[in-house]
Design goal:
mainly alpha; globular
Length: 449
């Protein structure tokens, strides 16, 4: 228990808010934790022997390749959405619902997927997830003229694959890393940002050449060809043993409750920029290629932000890093995006918001593993992610409804402002909640937490 990282973990478990120096304790002292938290103690014992590398880097590579596809495809939905809108398939709000349904499955199936990992193991779950993701993409190629069909193929089937892959990459690397856990998660989720960069540029070009239908099919085949070998690299260091879907006593923990709410609020604005940047750039008079370039830039910034936040979680602490990333996301949407009436300010918004956006995904698994224990991370992460369902499902569609209510994408740029302010306000509220947890644990601003 002598390392600085372990001391941080124990410190985070303290329920006291007294700022005076006192000895660190291995067991929370709150009245609601009267029974010893055996899972947390098991986590601390297991973390003391983690290799902080070794085969863990192969696992990180495999997980990063999975995020390349399931995150990259989700963040590139705006490109496909713009193409389908140009074909008059449906409205922006309806088609954004399809993309939101894909990510909403992450939350809707989180607790079930945590149990699937326990029963099948991380490797088999990853293989199953990639197969569902690719199948949904291939079948979507036959549904580009039927929005109902897209809800099933691109929404539900791809969503099942996305949710399975998300849970695998969120819980497996924590078993191999402690001191470098933030960096490992940063690398894993940076793969999604890199995937979004490459996929958004490629599918825009492919759509122009062969149309959305074959674009979906090509995506599916590429996902299978590269995703299956990557999934095979993933395996647990030790079996994930969790007896229940839900550990109800976590809801007696103030930190868990507030982080649960913070995550639920933070997911509402996350997909608003990547889903609506192509439409916004078109309203500025830019070409579809420029719109795809902006989404690619957003995703590249997201990849960089995920790496930076991974380093930040190890250097200044995961809670501090999460707070800063959410605050930057809010500031960019409330201050920069509304005045982005030309390409220059819009690029600045894309860089800042993309980096901050990626930080949320890269940091949250580290926060959960550090605060609540690596042995509990699958159940605790599953419980927290379940709270993201509303934001995943309704976040972007609400922005679409606001856009339509104030004139639609063919109106002036002012029509986008209500959606911008809505997204920025939600991010600001989430940052405030994370800040509340941070101060509850320790009011010393410079403390590593």
């Amino acid at each position: 228990m002598a390392s600085s990282t372990q001391s941080t973990t124990i410190s985070l478990e303290s329920y006291g808010r007294d700022n005076t120096a006192r000895p660190r304790r291995e067991v929370p002292a709150a009245p609601d934790a009267s029974s010893i938290d055996n899972i947390l103690l098991t986590s601390q014992a297991a973390d003391a022997t983690v290799p902080d590398g070794g085969y863990g880097w192969a696992v990180v590579f495999g997980c990063s390749a999975l995020t390349f596809w399931f995150v990259g495809t989700s963040y590139s939905w705006g490109i496909i959405q713009a193409a389908l809108i140009s074909q008059k398939l449906s409205s922006p709000s309806t088609l954004s619902f399809v993309g939101s349904l894909t990510t909403a499955c992450i939350s809707a199936l989180a607790l079930i997927n945590a149990r699937v990992i326990r029963l099948l193991g991380a490797r088999n779950t990853a293989l199953l997830g990639i197969c569902f993701l690719a199948l949904g993409e291939i079948l979507s190629g036959f549904s580009t003229h039927n929005v109902g069909g897209l809800f099933v193929t691109a929404g539900v089937i791809m969503g099942i694959g996305t949710s399975l892959c998300f849970m695998v990459v969120s819980v497996t690397p924590a078993q191999y890393f402690k001191k470098k856990r933030g960096l490992a998660n940063g690398i894993v989720y940076a793969g999604g940002g890199l995937g979004g960069t490459i996929i958004s540029l490629v599918i825009n070009s492919v759509i122009e050449k062969v149309g959305p239908a074959w674009t979906f099919r090509i995506l599916g085949l590429a996902t299978l060809a590269t995703g299956l070998p990557a999934a095979w690299l993933i395996k647990e260091r030790s079996p994930i043993r969790s007896a229940t879907f839900v550990e109800w006593r976590l809801f007696r923990d103030f930190k868990f409750i507030v982080l649960f709410i913070a995550g639920a609020v933070a997911t509402f604005p996350l997909f608003v920029p990547p889903f609506f940047l192509p439409l916004y750039s078109s309203s500025l008079g830019l070409s579809s290629t420029a719109g795809a370039g902006l989404v690619a830039g957003f995703n590249f910034s997201s990849a960089v932000g995920r790496l930076i936040c991974g380093f930040g979680a190890d250097f200044i602490g995961p809670l501090n890093t999460l707070f800063i990333s959410l605050l930057l996301s809010a500031a960019s949407m409330l201050v920069i995006w509304p005045v982005s009436n030309s390409l220059g300010p819009l690029i600045a918004f894309v860089i800042i918001n993309g980096a901050a956006n990626g930080g949320f995904f890269a940091t949250m698994p580290t926060v959960v593993g550090t605060v609540f224990g690596s042995a509990r991370v699958s159940v605790a992460m599953g419980m927290i992610v379940t709270g993201w369902a509303g934001g995943y499902l309704m976040g972007a569609p609400i922005a679409g409804y606001l856009l339509e209510a104030y004139g639609g994408e063919q109106s002036t740029l002012m029509a986008y402002h209500p959606a911008m302010f809505y997204a920025g306000s939600m991010a600001l509220a989430a940052s405030g909640l994370v800040g509340l947890v941070r101060l509850y644990i320790d009011r010393r601003v410079l403390e590593k937490l």
